[in-house]
Amino acid sequence: MTKEEIKKDFLAYVDDDSDVLFESNGDVMYFKNGTEHICRIITNEDGHTIVEFQEEKFPYRTFISKHLANLDLFARKIIEKRKGLEEFVDSPAILQNGHKSINGTALTLLQKECDEFLEFGSKINFITADAGHGKSVLLKQFQAIQAERYIKGESKYLFWHVDLQGRDLVRLGEAIMFDLGELRFPGLYYPSIINLIQKRFMILAIDGFDELAAEIGGTKAVSSLSNFVNEMAGQGTLIAASRRTFFDTHDYIKRTSLLKNKVPYDINFNELKLQNWTKKEVINYFTNLAFDNPEQIYDAILSEVHEENHPVLTRPFLLAKLASAIDGDVKQVAQFFSCKCNENESVSYIVESFTKREVEKWKGVDNKTGEPYLSFEQHIQLLSAIAKEMWDAKKDSITIEEIEIYTVLLFDEWNIEEDLRQIIVRIVGSHAFLPPVNDTKLNARKFEHEEFKHYFLARALADLFNNTVRTDNFSELKRFLYIEQLPDSVAMYCFNYVEDLNNNVQKILGYFKAMLDSEWKPTYLQLNIGTLLPFMIDKIDFKTPICFDSKVNYSSLIFENKKLSNITFENGTFINISLRDTILDNIQFKKCDFNEIRIETASRVVFRDVSIIDSNVASIVLLRDGEVVEVAYSPQRIIELLTANNIKLEDANAIIESIEIPTEKSEFKKALTKFILKFNKMTIQYEKNIVNEKYLGNNTDLIIGEIVPICIEFNVIEVIETKQSRQSGTTAWRLSVDMEDLFKHDGIEGNHPLTKFWRSVNDR
Predict the structure, then answer these.
(1) Boundaries of domain holding 195
(2) 237, 258, 274: which is the final residue of a domain?
(3) What is the pTM of this model?
(4) Is residue 642 domain-resident?
């Protein structure tokens, strides 16, 4: 250890930079939590750094973790305040690292990923899943397990879960300090956490990265993450959890500035994908809850939902809600599902069944009518009004006083008797769907899960559509769509409740066009209509083709799991469109712009009579089982891939006719592309890994003997020296050009060095 390294460590933990003094004899005087301390740092005969402190001798690393950081107390705080779940069930998962995919269970794979630190470099692991699949529960469970392991001396690091969900925070640093405050743990600061991560004493898990992105914007969120990783300086491990939709849409691995700059250290990007629960996990969960007949309960649920892959049986959060309602009584299953929704959708099942249960649990009836205090539809209407108020005010919670106000405003419409009003107002503050926010704000309420809020917001939006059609006035609908970006699930649930959708679709399309034609600058309106349209169209069986001509931004994953037919889109802008399990039949895109089309080749994709006419396609991304196989930016390759996928590209300028479409890429180019794409997952590639682990397949000789030399010749990659390359005696390479810029030059004419590179590649 150098004096400068030691000084940097101490400054990360002391109360103030001015409160530390380094003497020439090795003595260090510092203030920690307002108390003065003195220690002596020496080097023993074996060359190891030792700290003499309070008449004891400690290895330097032990002194950092036990005394400066006081991680034993940190672990006890976690055990005290953040216990795991006794009923926890480990979910199926797939770990995708730079080399391969590993199937297993989430907890096991997460522990494997965390236990295996990179000797030289940082490891960033993204945990992805749809809402309700247990990302947060997994992180909390592992946090509790690791705290116990650390106290017992079975692990040398702590796992710290920082939840960004629902917090009004701008930067990761703010979230870290806020969470330290919640744990009531003094004496650690932002530099302390960075230091602990670098020294592998701590792994930080950022939960709700998509929430941060929604709050400050995707680009700023990625930048915040990039800054944090840069501060790690090629050391330690970081976990970031987000919904799969955000991860896939923003592709923040590829777009992060970390990969566009010449990073002087290794960064490996891995992804842990949580999978659907199966019968095995459901049975285990019911067993952990001490239900008497887990198999019978499973069979009873299956008989109601009719399919094993129904979200109620595959999504842990929804299953937990169901389990709490039936409380182990198999007879309650049929009763729970007696109120079914229009479409067999998971959240609708749960919400509508729970609402019916709430109607029955509100004791007492109207003495005059004999009916419950509030009907099923009145509960739905009230909760929809509350969700809409949250949307209008751009907030995640609401006070009891506000809930009571909205309830009173609806009384007259409902013709509620005066003597019942006070009773209902008292009860509504404890509605099952609106639990307290936390222990410190008992006056505030929020929906327990974002999907519940999305469902009721969808019901409110459906009412706006119905009123718009009835009154032929879209002003309120337009105002709603102006506020902020609409979640995909709101669009999905909404059209289950729009009245007579088949007959009113032309009217609604007319309203959309009228709204957009009056716009002169980009707003959320264009984006939200682009989100709504595919879900609306998905609910309609068009017998005759229709055309929607308006400047709409179609974004996110809204074409996934869709079957669309007989539609022409004109003048649309399509952002990061994902075609996974997508069926398009008689679909035309005219005068449209696509910044990226992502095609999942391993999924069910069917394109019949699909044309892209007089449009611009900037890039094509081919994936297989979520792994990027190829990225194409050049016009020639884009045409090749569209043609191969049975999509016609018709350009008014007749460029296509001048291009000869090759039948297949050469083995050399396939191997080269695979090699280049690996830099998306590992910023630095090592010859030793390629040769020994063969993670690029059986083309090792081709990679090392031909592909690497041509990449070096054209300055696509460069040889660098790292700690690992020096220690292992191997060659290391780093990408020396922007990857997007590199692929854009494939197949075009000119004298640019990257154009010449691809010309040389394509000639082989």
Answers:
(1) 75-274
(2) 274
(3) 0.76
(4) yes
